[in-house]
Specification:
This protein is mainly β. It has one helix and 30 strands. The protein has one helix at about 145-155, and strands at about 1-5, 20-25, 45-50, 55-60, 65-70, 85-90, 95-100, 105-110, 115-120, 130, 135-140, 155-165, 170-175, 180-185, 190-195, 205-210, 215-220, 225-230, 235-240, 250-255, 260-265, 270-275, 280-285, 290-295, 300-310, 315-320, 325, 330-335, 340-345, 350-354. The chain has a five-stranded antiparallel β-sheet, with no helix packed on it. A five-stranded antiparallel β-sheet has the order 2-9-8-7-6, with no helix packed on it. It has a four-stranded antiparallel β-sheet with strand order 5-4-3-30, with no helix packed on it.
């Protein structure tokens, strides 16, 4: 899920640029940052602030550790407030962008895991929240600031730019109901799920990137929506009821509506969600701990649950071959829902993107 606003604690979307500018000199390290070498074992990546530097961190869920792997070089005009964006595209490549002040183009990098470095790319525009599909990428405007004002001026719609993920060539420009507050996609499908509105007033739609057509699929029906997933083009809206009493036990309720799945969590705060054809996995905060809960997507029956002690939030939830990876501000956890176990370990710095 991608909140369509570039804050320090929540971003995960990036796209492709075709022209190789240069290999990134200065990305390999810094006198203030000790770099590791576990590029091969790292199954997922985030960026973190380490000794005042933005650093790419590799997470090895099998070994239960996280290492600083490369320092992102700074340039004049970099924005110190907006978060970097980091995402894995459908072809397996990882892309990083760092925002710049004003309307300047973002700086783009690819994670070159073979050379253990960052390769810098060129781009010609300021990036927005970019949501990758199977072969296409949707660029969705920020839901705050100038992008939202532009959407309001356009009669309550938002312009979404669709690009080819390999060539970065513009495919089409589509107007969707807006402003968009949440966006999510599935790398197995060239469809993007969009949400407009906030809280219990969220409405969902699905954009077909290949045709540019948008279809409405309903609303959250009283649920204060906090997260969104999009398995194969079906919105999964997850949040808490309007009256949510926090407690020590979390209960999830799932219902399938016309074209969407709605999950309500009583007793906690929904931090992250991932969904597939058969299941929905939700990370719910319950104070100093978090529950990772798996539901059957058809019946809503709870299949598995693990409580992760000391995980007071989850800004990231990704599935790897060695379990689910959850990441908070400075801590990561690997959760095995089959075995009912979890293991936490420290990040080398404070999370800035995921």
């Amino acid at each position: 899920m991608i909140p369509v606003m570039r804050h320090k604690t929540s971003y995960a979307a990036l796209a492709v640029s075709a022209a190789l500018l240069a290999s990134c000199s200065g990305c390999s390290g810094s006198d203030d940052v000790e770099l590791g070498t576990d590029w091969k074992g790292s199954q997922t990546f985030v960026t973190a602030s380490v000794s005042g530097h933005t650093v790419v961190v590799g997470i090895n869920p099998e070994a239960h550790h996280a290492q600083s792997l490369a320092v992102v070089p700074r340039k004049d005009g970099d924005d110190d407030v907006l978060a970097p964006q980091l995402v894995q595209l459908a072809d397996g490549t990882w892309w990083l962008s760092t925002p710049r002040k004003g309307e300047r183009p973002d700086r783009l990098f690819t994670l070159n895991t073979a050379r253990h470095a960052l390769d810098e790319k060129d781009d010609t525009e300021r990036l927005r929240a970019l949501v990758p599909g199977k072969s296409l990428v949707a660029a969705v405007p920020d839901s705050s600031g100038s992008d939202q004002r532009a959407a309001t001026a356009a009669g309550g719609t938002t312009g979404v730019l669709v690009r080819d993920a390999k060539t970065w060539k513009k495919v089409r420009d589509v107007r969707v109901p807006g402003p968009v507050t949440l966006a999510a996609s599935d790398p197995s499908s060239d469809t993007v799920c969009l949400a407009t509105g906030q809280g219990s007033g969220v409405k969902a739609s699905v954009l077909d990137l290949a045709t540019g057509r948008t279809r409405q699929v309903g609303d959250a029906d009283g649920v204060q929506v906090q997260q969104l997933a999009c398995p194969a083009g079906t919105p999964v809206l997850v949040g808490t009821p309007t009256r949510n009493n926090l407690g020590t036990t979390v209960k999830l309720t799932l219902r399938n509506t016309a074209g969407a799945t709605v999950v309500s969590a009583v007793g906690g705060r929904v931090d992250a969600v991932q969904a597939s054809k058969d299941t929905v996995v939700v990370a719910v905060n319950i104070g100093q701990d978090s529950d990772l809960i798996e539901l059957d997507r058809r019946s809503g029956r709870e299949l598995r649950r693990v409580t992760v002690k000391g995980m007071d939030s989850s800004s990231l939830l990704r599935h790897t071959r060695d379990g689910w990876v959850m990441v908070s501000d400075d801590t990561a956890a690997v959760v095995d829902l089959d075995k009912g176990t979890s293991r936490t370990f420290d990040l080398p710095g404070t999370l800035t993107s995921f």
